[in-house]
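worker-03 picked up job from queue 'complexes'. Input manifest follows; two sequence lines, order preserved.
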Amino acid sequence: MAPSERKFWNLVIAGVGGQGTILTNAVLGRAVARSGLEVVTAETHGMAQRYGRITIHLRIGPEVHGALIPSGGADVLLGLEPLETLRSIECCSQRTLVLMNRQVVRPPSLALSWRAHYPSLEEIERRLQQVAGTVLSLEAHELARQAGTILATNAVMLGALCATAELPIPAELIRQALFEVVPAKAQEINRDAFEMGRAWAHLAQKSSCHQS
Amino acid sequence: MALKDIQAGEPGEKVFLLGNEAIVRGALEAGVELVAGYPGTPSSEVLDLLFALAPEFGHLAEYSVNEKVAVETAAGAAIVGKRAFAIMKHVGVNVATDALFALAQTGVNGALVILSADDPGMHSSQSEQDNRLYGEHMHLPMLDPSSPAEAKAFAQAAFELSHRLELPVILRTTTRVSHGSALVRLGTIPPRAAPAEKVHWARYRNPQRFTMVPVFARARRLLLTEKIAQARQLCEDPRYNPVKNIGSSVGILASGIAYEYALEALQVLELEANVMKIGTPYPLPQQTMAEFIADLKVLVVCEELEPYLEDRVRAIAKEANPGLKIYGKRSGHLPLEFEYSSQIVISGLAKALSLQLPVEFEKIEHRARKLIQDLPARTPVFCPGCPHQASLYALKQAVGQEAVFCGDIGCYTLGVQSPHNAVDTCLCMGASIGLANGIQYFSDDPVVAIIGDSTFFHSGLSALANAVYHQANLTLVVLDNDTTAMTGHQPHPSALDHRMKHTGGKLLDIAQVAEGLGVTDVKVLGALETERLTEAVKHSVAHRGVSVIVSKEPCALNWDRRRRRVGQPIVAYTVSDRCNGCLECLRDFNCIAIYEQDGLAQIDAALCNGCGACATICPEEAIIQRRSAGDLLQELTHGTF
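worker-03 finished. Artifact:
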């Protein structure tokens, strides 16, 4: 087997319990099932879902093994929350595209310690840029709100992912899988949200602007 | 979507399933007839899905009160010739061991499979334990899959093996197998005539086999040795324990998810090695293992948790290859604690074989650590509106810092964190009452045991009877949120829910149960009535003997769902201009919906679930309920605006 064929495509999803990370995971897995490639994931279930940190590791390739991605090995870090995106920086290296939603979810620990503070988004981006190849951040929750509901934030992120990352599977499969996974009544909003994410990414890349 | 895939997926189709979902499909394809278990991460989805699918596929399913009862229930079914499945997490097996050791001797007529979902790294558990050792200890055959696809295949195989050997079989997974997803190829689910066929006990009555008095038990013990010898022969099958021999002098012996990590490590290090995967930790395929190591110079053992394979292969090597160098945990190349990852195995393998690491992991990690060291932590917290949060607040108000707080297993264990500091101990299910009983013998400070409703039925009852019997001086607070919340809202004896429509069930009342166990001071209060609850706790603590307080309020998540279902609006609270910035609500109560802005408390309306507990604790009475659209309209029409 040639080394290029052995390669995994590695995705880390970072967010907070309740942000729909599991749904994003289900969409991608479903899409891979139709692609002829293999996929393996490691997910967070259980207690951490009570507003704790959630990370999902997802790997796609012709042959996949363990799901946990070695340090520096992510092709994409899909960050649904800025602080948790930065906290996952260990998976980043020059090969990594960071795609980050700018929606802040305050950790409750802030209320208990006067010393703790939430870093500015600029500071978070600056630190990510020190390690990752490319850092793109967007107001995905705002775009989702414009599309009809903030619940479609993940559809915006998937749209942006399809337009920016070098995916191992056709983007169309991801789009199709999204519509299969979301409830029937939410399909139109998710379609709009997906397209808004895609359009944003095209624009961001054209203007080679790293901050939206 | 997954439920639909498990349900209706066509044979031959490849679908994206969670390891636990794959196990469910495997059990259905094996024709499971009875399912019993107690929820616990990382096993819970298996029980939940099989319970939900019972009406359609015709098997019987129950949420048992604890794992011991679940195993006994499943064993009962298997004794009368049925295929039964008992489901639990690794520590749940501890609860069931008493039954299992004896069941190894009696065996079963149908099939009995026990799922033991282990949790290396303790993502959601109080202890790390390697249940592979139980296989050997109990003399029960055990299958240990390394991937979701294999989890399905092994689930199915476990039923066949159990049926063939007439022995219970343990299906052992770990968090990364149970909670990892991959593409799984589906097989055929056999058709079944529901309802289940009744049996004649006379056909199965056999006291010499099922009544373990010493004279019968000794005979069965000898038979067990014979059965294990037979099982050992079956385990030499390469379907369970495959060997890849490429003629290398380096060998890898691996099991579970560590096998997948080892394969990746070989790729990354561009290393060619012979590989043997152990899918049956008990009985081990000793003959195949001996042949595998015979011509090797170096063997690296990749397994999570205990050096189980490592020690056993060392014993085999004494005869098969005395000069073999064996690397693993004992040699210090791989860690003894917590879960593995590809990276850990890559590093360990490189160290053992003196190879260059292709990636400087340590440098990457060092840089990452520096970039995140000052970030505020994000640990799991109580949900907005959580009644436990209000109960624990009232408890602290009533008895202060000096009291002893013996906690238990459930969401309320989060109360160990600041500012609650209301959990001083947490060992295992039901231990709150037993520990409190021991401490009260020597403590003049108030002794409080805190237990959830589901945990109370799981293993609190006998401890409470013991405390009453021995005239203990303690107060038991049952945090009754009408569900088994932490594991995903399962029903229990005092919380029958809509999913039990097809099974029915008799509701037990916690206060009546406590009275029935001889407690004379029993009070039932609403968890959100913080002032009344505080007074009640003061009163109970002053009472000599055992007192029980049932603090009742449905889990906030369930309450939210119920309101959404019936279209009832969730009306958030807000902070009025009476707030003087004392921030007691934030510091002492710490609901996730409350935050500080410009020195004053604020409430995030999107998070607030309208429980109102914070309003009852604000000394300035500054927290008030927002008016709903309906209220506003009414005020306008009545001209009060």
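worker-03 released lock.
DSSP finds 25 helices and 22 strands in chain B.
Chain B has a mean pLDDT of 95.
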